[in-house]
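call fold(seq) -> C-alpha cells
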Amino acid sequence: MNSLRVAFLGGGTMALRQAAALLDAGLPRSGLVSVYDRDVAVAHAFADRFGATPMPSSRAALQVASHVVIATTAGSHASDAFEALTMRRGVFVEKPLALTVRDGAALTILAERLSLPLHVGLSERFHPVVRALANSLANTVEARRVTRIETVRNLRSMRARDCSVAMNLAVHDVDLALTLTHEGLTLDTTHAAQTVTGLSSFHARFIGARGEAVSIAAADGVSRDVRTITVTVDSTTFEGDLLAGTLSQVAMGVRTPVLVERVSGLVSQASALLSVWTGRQALGPATARDAFRGLALLARATRTAHERAHRTPENLPPFGPFG
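ret:
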C-alpha cells in the first residue's frame, strides 16, 4: 500500500470525507500526494489538512500520482475521468459517473480497453443497513425470491445542486435495486404516467427480470430527511431506515430487529477500493459498468417523463396510418 500515490481532483466537502475514509481504511498519510481544485483556497485547505501538495492543474496533480479520486462538480466528472484514464491512472469518481449516457458508455469502454480500474462512489451499497439487508436476503432467497423493492430518499437540502435529483439521489437507489435483483431492471412503461423527473423530484417504477416490482422516489427541498428501503420476499418484509441505522424483518405480523453493524459505509467502501488498487481482491466499489446500467435506466425514465409532458394535441402521433 506504500506504493499508492493518490491525487485528488476537487478538494471540497466530499473530497474531505473520502480522504479521511481512505486514511481510516489504512492508506498512509504519505499516500495522499496531490490535490487540484479550481478554487485555490479550497485546494490549500485540503493540503493543510492532509499534507498533499496543491497543484496548478489537474494534469500536474495526476502526473505525480498512480491513482486519483475525482470529487469535482458532477458536470466535470466525465472530462476529469477521461483525462485520468488517458494518463493511465486508476480512477475513483464520485457519483454520478457522467451526466449523459454517451459519456458514461465512452468511459466504461475506455477503462475496459485499457484494463484500468474505474470505480464510482455509489457508497450506499456499503451502508451497514444495506449490507445487513443483503446478508438477510442471502439467507432467504434460495427458496423464495424478492417480489418488491421500494425506496424513498428525501432531503431538506442537497449539499450540491449541480445535477438533477435523479443523478444526485435516485442514482443510489437504482444501484441498490440493480444489486439486489441481480438480473437487471427495465422501466415499467405501464406506469409511465406516474414517472416524474425534474431538478427537485424523481419517481419511477421498474420491473426486474423475474418480475420484481421496484419503486424509486427521491425529492429535494422537503420538510424532513428520509432514507428508507423496503424489500418484500414473498410474505416477509424487510424495512430499513438508513438514517436511523435500523433494519427490521416483518413476518406473520411479528416484527424482529435485524443486527446492523455500527461501521462507516464510506470507510468500508474505501477499504474495498484500496484492496482493489493494491491487488488484494478483485471485488471493490461499483464499477463503471455497474454505474452505467443505472445511468441508462435514469436516462430512460427521464426521457419517458419528458416525452409524456410534451405530448400536446399538436405533437401527438396520428390515430392511424399517416401518408
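The chain has nine helices and 16 strands.
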